[in-house]
Write a structure and sequence with these properties.
Among the domains are: 60 residues, no CATH class; 100 residues, 2-Layer Sandwich (Tetrahydropterin Synthase, Chain A). It is 55% helix and 19% strand. The protein has a three-stranded antiparallel β-sheet with strand order 3-2-5. The chain has a three-stranded antiparallel β-sheet with strand order 6-7-8. Strands 1-4 form a two-stranded antiparallel sheet.
């Protein structure tokens, strides 16, 4: 009998409490107020009993979230550009998030945009293109404490590619193209210079070798003449110096005719009449050619 009454009482209690039972999902925090005063701690995931005169002030999502925005900013070189940016954030303290600011998310986004404008105003358009990540890091460093005061954590600020006005973009493209052409022309000129230097160096070496060869040739000729003169003096002890030199000249003229006749490039060879009787007449040809 007593057991039956106890079961009935328990069922009645559960039935009466059922409307006040609440299940908080995972990654959520519920801020509860009792008679207008917030409880010390929010409710986290699990089963909770909402006692009479208590209300759910706010359900806070604890997951990481992101907001994508677009802002028009002015650079140091007076160019207005549109920049897309993404703020990645999450709630770290539900109580501060609910009570520290009327609209904490809007405040965070406004502060982020304000910092973005200030940072970009000190950069040229070219610097902005090359240092987008640096801009995001500066914003994070500045807003970290302000976000924490509102119960939030700003994890990252992603800066997208700036979008300058059409005429500015065209001018930049032309500048890049001109710079590319300039580099190509410089490289071509440098290659040409190297080629010319190489040719000049080769010619220098060639002329040097030619000069050395000519010098050796003249030395050999001089040595041959000296030896011939010595042999003639020994072979003709009674001949005078003039006779020996005359005989050497005749021999040289004859050698020249023979050499010229065996050269493949020789098209025409002029030989004086009665050359066989007077070979020395060949020496007069350059003088005759010059006079005519």
């Amino acid at each position: 009998m007593f057991f039956g009454i106890l079961c009935a009482v328990l069922i009645l209690i559960v039935f009466c409490a059922l409307p006040f039972l609440r299940i908080v999902p995972g990654m959520e925090a519920w801020v509860i107020e009792f008679l207008g005063r917030p409880l010390r701690q929010p409710w986290y995931s699990g089963l909770h009993l909402l006692i009479p005169f208590s209300v759910i002030r706010k359900k806070v999502d604890l997951r990481e979230q992101q907001n994508a925005e677009t802002s028009e900013v002015k650079t140091k070189d007076n160019v207005f550009v549109k920049i897309g940016w993404v703020a990645i954030w999450k709630v770290s303290e539900a109580m501060k998030f609910v009570y520290a600011n009327e609209n904490p998310l809007q405040q965070l986004l406004w502060q982020t945009e304000n910092d973005l404008r200030q940072i970009v105003s000190e950069m040229t358009l070219e610097q902005l293109y090359s240092r987008k990540d640096h801009v995001g890091q500066l914003i994070l460093k500045d807003i970290e404490l302000k976000a924490a005061a509102m119960g939030m954590v700003l994890s990252n600020v992603l800066i997208e590619q700036p979008e300058p006005p059409k005429e500015v973009a065209e001018a930049m493209n032309q500048e890049v193209a001109a710079e590319a052409l300039k580099k190509a022309a410089t490289a071509k000129a440098e290659a040409k210079r190297i080629e010319l230097v190489g040719i000049a160096q080769a010619e220098k070496e060639s002329k040097k070798l030619q000069g050395e060869g000519l010098s050796e040739q003249r030395k050999a000729i001089a040595q041959g003449l000296e030896e011939s003169y010595t042999l003639m003096q020994k072979g003709m002890p009674n001949a005078s110096e003039e006779q020996i030199l005359s005989l050497m000249l005749k021999a040289m003229d004859t050698d020249m005719v023979v050499t010229a006749s065996h050269t493949s490039k020789t098209n025409l060879m002029v030989v004086p009449y009665a050359y066989s009787d007077n070979p020395a007449a060949l020496s007069a040809l350059p003088i005759l050619a010059k006079n005519h």
